[in-house]
Write a structure and sequence with these properties.
By secondary structure, this protein is of the alpha/beta class. The chain is built from seven helices and six strands; from the N terminus they run βααβαβαβααββα. A six-stranded parallel β-sheet has the order 3-4-2-1-5-6, with helices on both faces. The longest helix is centred in the N-terminal third of the chain and has 24 residues.
Length: about 240
């Protein structure tokens, strides 16, 4: 696999934490903790492989419907992860963005997100987008509302600029673990031309070798963007802001 065939932007639906724990007769929170280990390793491997943007679906707007104790545990895990992981991510040149509706989050959580973003704002090795309380439909709606409030015409171009992920190019590769074959309201606008890759591995089992398999599968595909095979040339990459 050559560097030219490495996707610029990889997005991941990290599915299967709860099932991983259940199969081992463990509480679901144990699966989420194990999933954090897998995510830490994934960030590291993406940076080593030359991926420039990594976006993960950490907590969807629908996840509020889960049992209250699980939601509370996820919030606690996020707070602990920020305290533990951000200093090391900063050393590794990772810039963190939290993407999603922060209105429902506690003041403490919102402050933690803002601090993590500020601490890593100058880093350029890898942009790490964490979609938290995010939904693709919410993203489209908030972008349209933003344009309407400014009195701007709603076009494809203006909507694109108003999206929550406007600071990075659209994903080249969307990976979903856990054996499901759907997007589940993740990056509905941005994934319009993404290559999709589905893995039967549960997220805590998705290691460096599994990521390499996904990257190799991507490298073998021909991306035409509506053109014929004879016309295909590598699309111009947007620059990360």
């Amino acid at each position: 696999m050559t560097l030219a065939r490495i996707p610029h932007h990889v997005a991941i639906v990290m599915d299967g934490n709860g099932r991983w724990a259940t199969r081992r007769f463990l509480p679901r929170v144990a699966g989420h903790k194990k999933g954090m280990d897998a995510l830490r390793a994934c960030v590291k491997h993406c940076g080593e492989r030359g991926v420039k943007v990594l976006t993960v679906f950490a907590f969807s707007s629908e996840n509020w419907n889960r049992p209250p104790e699980e939601v509370s545990s996820l919030m606690e895990l996020l707070a602990a992860a920020l305290a533990r992981e951000v200093p090391q991510l900063n050393v590794e040149g990772v810039r963190i963005h939290f993407v999603g509706d922060r209105a429902q989050l506690s003041e403490k959580v919102r402050a933690g997100l803002a601090q993590a973003e500020a601490a890593t704002a100058g880093n350029q090795r890898l942009v790490f987008n964490i979609c938290f309380n995010y939904g693709g439909r919410w993203d489209i709606a908030q972008a349209a509302a933003k344009l309407a409030a400014r009195g701007e015409a709603i076009t494809e171009q203006s909507l694109d600029r108003a999206m929550a992920l406007a600071h990075v190019p659209d994903p080249d590769l969307v990976i979903r673990t856990g054996g499901e074959r759907r997007l589940s309201n993740f990056l509905l606008w941005q994934a319009a031309y993404a290559e999709l890759y589905f893995s039967d591995k549960l997220w805590p089992e998705f290691d460096a070798a599994a990521l390499d398999d996904a990257l190799a599968d991507y490298a073998a595909r021909e991306r035409r963007f509506g053109k014929t095979s004879e016309q295909v040339t590598p699309p111009a990459a947007k620059r990360v802001a």
